[in-house]
Write a structure and sequence with these properties.
By secondary structure, the protein is an alpha/beta fold. It has ten helices and eleven strands. It is globular and about 55 Å long. The structure holds S-adenosyl-1,8-diamino-3-thiooctane. The site of S-adenosyl-1,8-diamino-3-thiooctane (AAT) has 27 residues, from strand 4, strand 5, strand 6 and helix 6.
């Protein structure tokens, strides 16, 4: 294979690649769903890679996990029932657990190998599984949501991989319809929503589907995550019809929640100012979002 074929052939970001120096391969195996790799990098700590795509590094996982969790949970008053789709590393669970109002944390991850690998190599993320409010379901989230009780959840967080492989259907209309059904009126969804530099069309498609289905509000936010393609990641926030949700001004600020800032470990990235700032969009993105 030529270097071009090796480095620049991912359909999600053709023609570019980001590299990290490998100190040591710690784990490599093929699960039923994907290739799972863990390596020690020289500058970002340990790295989890699925099918050749970086899912997290020890150094910058805080930015992604804290944002995808607290953007939705701080936007509603006392969230109680929360569902995580994907997220088998446990990092999002760790963040949800900071919210003492939460009573039930369901998680549906398709790949048992991701969970096992995280428990072994990323204990500071997998600690999320130790919270007694967590109920783990290993299976396809598409099926799980089809059978979820109507109106059960206050918030659903979709921490899924890119839409190639097992996450393909997680960006399609029927999936969003089952999410809306599983949320209570005025419930919120936060969905991983790719890079504004690379995936304009994918983001526009998700936005127009969600504007159709979620009759409350739909907003796009973003944050810097250096090891994701182009160095940023987006989040789509949606609410169902019901008590109105103003995502831009957190009604349930993390700074006022008892113990939340320090629960098991200090918050590293998220605060209320970052929350509000995440919704400020560059002009080209604003035009694309408004053009719909
Ligand atoms: N918090 C780490 C970030 C991730 S991990 C995404 C997880 O979603 C993986 O563990 C994968 O196994 C799981 N997953 C994929 N498809 C499904 C499905 N159909 N049902 C349940 N779980 C699923 C995401 C990083 C984003 C990277 C951005 N480039």
């Amino acid at each position: 294979k030529s270097l071009n074929e090796v480095y620049f052939n991912n359909p999600m970001w053709p023609g570019e690649s980001h590299s990290l120096k490998v100190e040591k391969i710690l784990f490599k195996d093929k699960s039923k769903y994907q290739e799972v790799l863990v390596f020690q990098s020289s500058t970002y700590g340990r790295v989890l890679v699925l099918d050749g795509i970086v899912q997290l590094t020890e150094k910058d996982e805080c930015a992604y996990q804290e944002m995808i969790t607290h953007l939705p949970l701080c936007s509603i008053e006392s969230p109680q029932n929360v569902l995580v789709v994907g997220g088998g590393d446990g990092g999002v669970l760790r963040e949800i657990a900071r919210h003492s109002s939460v009573k039930v944390i369901d998680i549906c991850e398709i790949d048992q190998m991701v969970i096992d690998v995280s428990k072994k190599y990323f204990p500071q993320l997998a600690i999320g599984f130790e919270d007694p409010r967590v109920h783990l379901h290993v299976g396809d989230a598409i099926e799980f949501l089809k059978h979820a009780p109507e109106g059960k959840y206050d918030a659903i967080i979709v921490d899924s991989s890119d839409p190639v492989g097992p996450a393909q259907e997680l960006v399609e209309r029927p999936f969003f319809e089952t999410i809306a059904r599983a949320l209570r009126p005025g419930g919120v969804l936060c969905n991983m929503a790719e890079s504004m530099w690379l995936h304009t069309h994918l983001i526009q498609d998700m936005l127009s589907i969600c504007r159709d289905i979620f009759k409350g509000s739909v907003r796009y936010a973003w944050a810097s995550v250096p090891t994701y393609p182009s160095g940023v990641i987006g989040f789509m926030l949606c609410s169902t019809e019901g008590p109105p949700v103003d995502f831009v001004r957190p009604i349930n600020p993390i700074e006022k929640l008892e113990g939340a800032l320090h629960y098991r470990r200090e918050l590293k990235f998220y605060n209320s100012e970052i929350h509000r700032a995440a919704f400020a969009l560059p002009s080209f993105v604003r035009r694309e979002v408004e053009a719909l």
